[in-house]
Design a protein that fits this description.
Elements: H1 2-23, H2 81-97, H3 103-108, H4 110-113, H5 135-146, E1 151-155, H6 157-160, H7 168-175, E2 180-182, H8 190-201, E3 209-213, H9 224-241, E4 246-250, H10 261-273, E5 282-285, H11 312-329
Parallel strand pairs: 1-2, 1-3, 3-4, 4-5
C-alpha cells in the first residue's frame, strides 16, 4: 500500500513537471501578446511597437536572463536537491523490494517516476524582451533620470494605450492632476518589465504610487502559477526600487469570451497574486467584473472587437474604479 501511494504521488508530481516543461515553450500557433490587435482570445495584448499602438520592427533574439527574487506568497514549491535525492532513493528502494506482479512494470518505468530537477520559470527573470529594445526603453530611462514623477503606470498595451488620442482625455480626467509617467509597452510581459526596471526604468526617481497590471501576455506560454511568480517578482522589484511608494496591483483584466480557458487561467493568476496585498505597501484591486454584463460579456463599446483592449468607455470605467484609491495612495 505504501508503495502504491508513493508511486501515485511521484507520478502526479512527474506529470506536473511535464506540464511545467511544456509551458516553457510556446504552444503551437500561440501568439501570446505579440499578435495583431484584431485577433481575439488566443492572441495577447497586441503589437509591441516603438510608439503607442505601433508595429514591431526587427530585433535581436531574446536571451533569457537571470532569475528574479519571487515573494514567498506566490512562490511555487520546488524540491531542493537534497529532497530530490531523498525521494528518489526511497522510491528506488521500494520498487526494488516490491514482490507484487507489478514489480517488472514498475522497474521498467522507474525512470519516468523519478522526480526531476525543477525547471526555471522565465516569467520571473530579468529578460530583455523585444519590447524593451530600442528607443521607447531608452526614452523611459531618460524620463526616469529627470525625476519629478509622482505616479508611475506600468504594464503592457492595456496600460500603454492610455496614451492614444481617443483615450488621453479620459486619462487627464482622472489622473491629469498628478505628475505621471507611463512606462508600459504594448506586447510586454512580466520578464520584460522586470528587465526594464532593473536597467534604468526603476532608478532616478521615487514615485508616491505605482499602478501595475501585467501578465496577460504571458498566458499563451506559461501556467497560472508561473505567471503569478512573474507578477510577484515585478512587485518585489518595485518595492526594492521604490521603497516608499504605494503599489496598486490590479488583477489582470478578463479577456476573450465566456467559456474560453484563458479566462480560467487569468482567474487563477489573480487568486494567487491577491496574496501580495499587505494593506501597507501593496494593495490588490480586481475591477474586472465592472467591464462585464451579467453573462460575462464585455459591456457595449467598452472593449475593442478583440475582446482584450479597452476603448475610451472601458478606460473611463477603469479610471472611475481606481481614482479614489489612487488619490488615497498619493497622500
Amino acid at each position: 500500500m505504501k508503495l502504491r501511494l508513493l508511486v501515485l504521488l511521484v507520478v502526479t508530481i512527474a506529470l506536473a513537471g511535464a506540464d511545467f516543461a511544456r509551458a516553457q515553450a510556446p504552444a503551437p500557433g500561440a501568439q501570446g501578446a505579440l499578435g495583431a490587435q484584431g485577433a481575439a482570445g488566443a492572441r495577447g495584448a497586441a503589437g509591441a511597437g516603438q510608439a503607442p499602438g505601433g508595429g514591431r520592427g526587427g530585433f535581436a533574439p531574446v536571451v533569457i536572463g537571470p532569475p528574479a527574487p519571487v515573494p514567498p506568497e506566490v512562490a511555487i514549491p520546488r524540491p531542493s536537491p537534497a529532497e530530490l535525492e531523498q525521494a528518489n532513493a526511497a522510491l528506488q528502494r521500494l520498487i526494488a523490494s516490491d514482490k507484487s506482479p507489478a514489480q517488472p512494470v514498475l522497474k521498467k518505468f522507474e525512470s519516468l517516476m523519478l522526480l526531476q530537477p525543477p525547471k526555471s520559470n522565465a516569467a520571473a527573470t530579468y529578460t530583455q524582451t523585444n519590447q524593451r529594445m530600442g528607443p521607447r526603453h531608452e526614452g523611459f530611462v531618460e524620463t526616469a533620470k529627470q525625476g519629478n514623477i509622482d505616479l508611475l503606470l506600468h504594464g503592457d498595451s492595456i496600460t500603454d494605450w492610455w496614451l492614444q488620442d481617443a483615450n488621453k482625455p479620459v486619462f487627464d480626467k482622472y489622473f491629469g492632476q498628478y505628475r505621471t509617467a507611463n512606462f508600459a509597452i504594448a506586447g510586454d510581459t512580466t520578464q520584460g518589465v522586470l528587465w526594464g526596471l532593473k536597467n534604468g526604468e526603476g532608478q532616478g526617481f521615487q514615485p508616491k504610487a505605482v499602478m501595475l497590471m501585467i501578465g496577460t501576455n504571458n498566458t499563451g506560454q506559461f501556467t497560472a502559477p508561473e505567471i503569478a511568480e512573474g507578477v510577484g517578482a515585478v512587485v518585489g522589484e518595485l518595492r526594492r526600487d521604490f521603497p516608499s511608494a504605494k503599489i496598486l496591483l490590479l488583477a489582470i483584466f478578463p479577456r476573450s469570451v465566456p467559456g474560453d480557458a484563458v479566462r480560467d487561467k487569468i482567474a487563477e493568476v489573480n487568486r494567487i497574486i491577491s496574496r501580495l496585498d499587505d494593506k501597507k505597501n501593496v494593495f490588490y484591486m480586481d475591477i474586472g467584473k465592472q467591464f462585464l454584463d451579467d453573462k460575462g460579456v464585455f459591456l457595449p463599446d467598452s472593449f475593442r472587437a478583440d475582446n482584450l483592449h479597452p476603448q475610451a468607455k472601458g478606460y473611463d470605467i477603469w479610471g472611475q474604479a481606481v481614482s479614489a484609491k489612487i488619490a488615497e495612495l498619493m497622500k
